[in-house]
Amino acid sequence: MLRATTTKNDLFTDHLWDRTEVLRSAIDDLEFLRHLGEGTLPLEVFRTYIEQDSLYLTGYSKALAILAAKSPDPQTAAFWATSSANAATVESAMHNELLTGGALPPRQGEPQHSQTCLAYVSYLIAAAATESYAVAAAAALPCFWIYAEVGRDLAASAAKVIAADPAHPYAQWVTTYGAEEFQQAAATARALVDAAAEAASEQERAAMEKAFVLAVRYELMFWDTALRPQPWPAA
């Protein structure tokens, strides 16, 4: 899965990929993703994940909108702005359809951000608002790149499940993030981060690396807490 990706070590994002090998291997080994690919993830766990991902997308869309405003040129701004709109509309609509279509267990109360979800989106919005464009772009990249890799690999592992049951509750999610359109968006995001790194100082590239690593950590925690939730202290 993620650990099988090869790099040429000639781009800044190649370095970022190698730098996060341990974290990516941990993502590969997540029980949540294994059961999702096998189609055996409990429906209530998948619902929890989709609810949290919907909350995450709202915050991520805001971060991408800020990133678009800080972009160095109109073409770059257009990509981040379009990605922001897709997160707020296309992906959110898919999540809403999953949550309200009847295939998943009914909602028990209004969903609230998990600790990891709130921490992740708060970090991304803060990075977009307070860091340089290059650092903010590096922080935003793992959501594109990790999801594209996970989606591609899940599409392969879940092929038999989807072939046997095209209406399986997980089919729509898997096919969305494994689709060529999303793969291309991830490649564009990576190219923009490489371009930003080329124009950055050594100090700024070090900050970009830290931002990317932190976001990959959050990606790992976000997947894992869907299966192993961490309740908030009682209030």
TrEMBL record:
<dbReference type="Pfam" id="PF03070">
    <property type="entry name" value="TENA_THI-4"/>
</dbReference>
<dbReference type="InterPro" id="IPR004305">
    <property type="entry name" value="Thiaminase-2/PQQC"/>
</dbReference>
<dbReference type="InterPro" id="IPR050967">
    <property type="entry name" value="Thiamine_Salvage_TenA"/>
</dbReference>
<dbReference type="InterPro" id="IPR016084">
    <property type="entry name" value="Haem_Oase-like_multi-hlx"/>
</dbReference>
<comment type="pathway">
    <text>Cofactor biosynthesis; thiamine diphosphate biosynthesis.</text>
</comment>
<protein>
    <submittedName>
        <fullName>TenA family protein</fullName>
    </submittedName>
</protein>
<feature type="domain" description="Thiaminase-2/PQQC">
    <location>
        <begin position="31"/>
        <end position="228"/>
    </location>
</feature>
